[in-house]
Structure formats: structure tokens, C-alpha cells
Design goal:
7 helices, Glucose Permease (Domain IIA), alpha+beta, 9-stranded antiparallel β-sheet, about 55% helix
Amino acid sequence: MKKNILRRALPLVLAAVLMIPLFEPLSVTPVSAKVTQQDIDKLKSDANDLASQKKELASQLSKVRADKSKAQDRKSLIEQQINVIQSEINNYDAQIQNYATLIGEKEVDLAETQQKEAAQYELFCKRVRSMEEDGEVSYWSILFSSSDFSDLLDNFMMVEEIMQYDNGVMESLVSLREQIEADKAALESAKADKESARQAKVAAKQDQEAKQAEVDKLIDEISADEDALEAQEAQMRKEAAAIDAEIKKKQKELASQISNVVSESGFLWPLSGYNTLSSLYGSRIHPLTGKANNHTGIDIPAPKGTSILASKSGVVVTSAYNNSYGNYVVVAHSDGTSTLYAHMSKRNVSEKQTVKQGAVVGYVGSTGSSTGNHLHFEIRVNGVRKDPVNYFKSKTLYVTYKGQKVQLKH
């Protein structure tokens, strides 16, 4: 009687088992991650390079720090440190953004794996319920119920299929659980790395602020030294020739790109809301001092951080730091002109970048041979420097000297 029950139960057990899918596929269609660990490792490598640059500048600075006559050299080296720190801050920002993206991706992966585990556990529960509903039948009972050797072989094959199914369910659950633990560990690691990058950024900003305070102190020191001011002007004139050669070289290298950018017929004033000059171009007679200038451009005072606008659409041929010009940008235009913006606190464009008229190329500062926040602005036509004032005939401009202010006739 018992053997007859077992025989009737076997097909039902096998059918119930095989009707339940073994497990959901663990693999999903590969999706290209927006951020990879290689991306982050590259940023970390760049950060190490920046740290080396900062260390080298610190070494140079230590050699001139005690020399009172080298205030301008100290200012220049500290400003270069500030630029490197800004690059570090930008690097940390990129790391933080990449980690945020990576964390989002890992959270999705974890949620998907947890859903698969829940579904697989439900399959396991169905298997158990199926066994309970059809009567608890052991593997050995099925084998011992065999009436002869042929029946034993048939039953063995059936038991083997059931055992394979059961083992598959358990192996799938174990694999999913291991994947969940791995996903959780990777998620926590990414969160910790993101926090480390955030803290490093905070420390870099504090370092940058401290160095800027040191630069401000040096500006006061240089401003009180007439010899230092004259040396600044001489250095600016000396650097001007090198800048001219550099612009011509870069324009030639980027000629095809420059020619593809349509330039406007007129120039846009680079500092919206600020139209008073503190220094005029070239040998022009200053209306207040009565003396001739010997200046490579015009100086337009404005608060630190004021946006500097591209006067024409074109291609950035230079975005760099120079001991005299400080942070400066040169934009070449397809009509043969070029514009230069100097003494920026921070540059906002990169070399070979295409910019539209009115785009922010940087921010007003006092880097390089400068003792006050202003924009040094130059215009060149076919490589020859011109008086920028002549290209703004319709604009009302003023010039100041020791507190006096008069309208500029042009």
C-alpha cells in the first residue's frame, strides 16, 4: 500500500518541482557605467602630480621668503601655488561628482541584487510548500520503493533531477547573498572615499585662503615701494614682446580652428558696469598728470571676482600664468584681431576652447605685476598692439588719478 502511494506521489513531486523555475538569471545586460574606477584613479594620479607641483613651488618660495627685496617674486610664487590649489579643488570636485555617480550606480546594483534574492527566496518557499502539499517524501523513500532494478534506475534519475533542482536553489541563494555583501562593501568604500575627497577639498580651500591673505599683505608691501612699482612696469614691458611672439605662434597653430569661428564686427566692453580707467595705453598723454604713458593696454579697476567677458567670439590661444601678466587669457578672432585679459584672480577657459562674445573668460584679480584688482585689457590687429579705447568710440569712458575723475575724450 505504501509503495503504491509513493508511486503515485513521484510524478506529482517531480511535476511540482519542475514547474517552478530554478532561478532568475544572475547576469543582466551590460550597461556602460558613466563612471569607472579608472576615471577616479586618473583623477587621483592628477592630484598627486599637483601635490608635487605645490611642493616644488614651496621649495622655491623658501629660498626668497626672507629677502625683503624679492616681494614680487614671493607674490608670484604664492599666486602660482594658489593656481595649483585651485586645480586641486577642481580635481576634488570632479572626484566628488564621480563618487556621487558611482554611489548611485552601486545603490542600483545593490537594490537589483536584493530583489533577485527576495525572488529566489520566494522560489525556495514555493518548493517547500509544494513538498508539504504533496506529502513529505524523502529521497531514500523514493529509492527504496523501487520494485526492481529497472524501477530503481528510473527512480534514481528522478531523484537526481530533484536534487539538482534543490542544490541549484540553494547555490543561487548563497551566490546572491555573497553578491549583496560585496555590493554593500563597495558602496560603503565609495561613500568613505567621497567623504575623504570632500575633507581634502575643505582643507585645500583653507590653504588657498591663507595664501591669498599672504598675497594681499605683499601687495600692500609692494604698493608702498616706488622702486618695486617701477620694476613691475619695466617687467611688464619686457614680457610684452614675449607675449606677442607667443600669440603669433599659437594663432598659426590654431589657424584652421580660428577661421571657423565667425567674429563680430565690433568689440564688447569686457567689464559690464565698469567704465573708468586707471591707466591708459601706450604714449597717450594722461589727462590728469599730463605725462605720457608707456603702457601695453588699458587698466580697468573693478572688484575682485567681477566677471570678465570675451569681447568677440573666437578661440582661446593662451590660458596661463605669467609673472607679469598673472593669470591671463588670449582669445584670437577670425578677423585677424586678438584680445588679451590679464591679472585675473581665476581663469575660466582653457586653451583651444571656442568662446562666444560675452562668455566669461575669467574673473578680476590682482595677480602678477599688479597691486590692485583690475583688468589689464589689450587689443591686437594682425599681431600689432592697438589702443583699445579707439574701438569703443560710442562708449562713455572716464579716467582717474589720485581720486580725480574726468571723462576721456576719444
